Amino acid sequence: MSVDTVVERPTLAVWKFASCDGCQLSLLDLEPELLAITRAVRIAHFTEMTRAHVEGPYDISLVEGSITTDDDVARILEVRAQSRYLVTIGACAATGGIQALRNFVEPGAFPAMVYAHPDYLRALDTSTPVSAHVAVDYELRGCPIDRFQLLEVLLALLAHRRPIVATHSVCQECKARGTVCLAVSGESACLGPVTRAGCNALCPSIGRGCFGCFGPSEGANVTSLMQWLRSHGHDEVTLARSLQTFNAAAPAFRDAATNLGATKVTIGTTAHSRKDES
User: Fold this and answer.
1) At what angle do helices 147-159 and 32-40 cross, to 10 degrees?
2) 8 A C-beta contact, residue 211 and residue 242
3) Model's pTM, two decimal places?
4) Which of 49, 79, 229, 242 has the fewest CB atoms inside 10 Å of its own CB, making it the most exposed?
5) Are 212 and 243 in contact (CB under 8 A)?
6) Where are the domains of the chain?
7) Residue 237: which residues within 8 A CB-CB, separation 6 or more?
8) Residues 207, 212, 218, 223: is their CA dihedral positive or negative?
9) How confident is the model over 228-258, as pLDDT tens digits?
């Protein structure tokens, strides 16, 4: 190769849908590692970082956020068509996020509580993960994602290998830290035994039960954990609420909440339920 030959860097695009931007900020939080990334790839689109935009196609697209509008549906199809690899980042993109609580209530119930004229809003009745609309090459969980897991995924894609990201539960992280099990001690309705690792057991380390922000771990038996927690004094409402947060629409959490009789989402003292359409 001559000295005049220019090696074209792979292009990286970062896209936002319905989300809080926290997972995109995790990429910016890499700081010194981010400088190395920018030398390895060409950032073609990343509104959180720069106004610059380069037309596709793109080698890697990172997608944050759930699909909540008709425009989102059209846009994610375009992103998929322009991307060699599409990686979803965070609970919103992977399972629908906190906004997927709308999936369990009557259409329009939540906007009516907030907006004086909700009829001006244009949104779908449900919040769905990106994988419900297009093929996804890799899903990175968390609310927000762990920035070093993201770095591993990016390096793996650039090296054309499989990412090495933990699929075990938070319990393993608790044991590594020497944290006393909050579920066994009865102090908390902790979801650590069924939640994917990635946070280094942050909440249990400060005495707060895991609330499942990284979603169900591989092979998680959530219903069994709920039965065990009930037998140790935790009521059904508390357990159902613990499952209806960032990953409420994840099948394992959703089904376990349904088994507890949680056919509705409770906000404060007002209960809202989706009408039986049968």
Assistant:
1) 20
2) yes
3) 0.89
4) 49
5) yes
6) 11-159, 170-262
7) 266
8) positive
9) 999 988 999 999 999 999 999 999 999 999 8
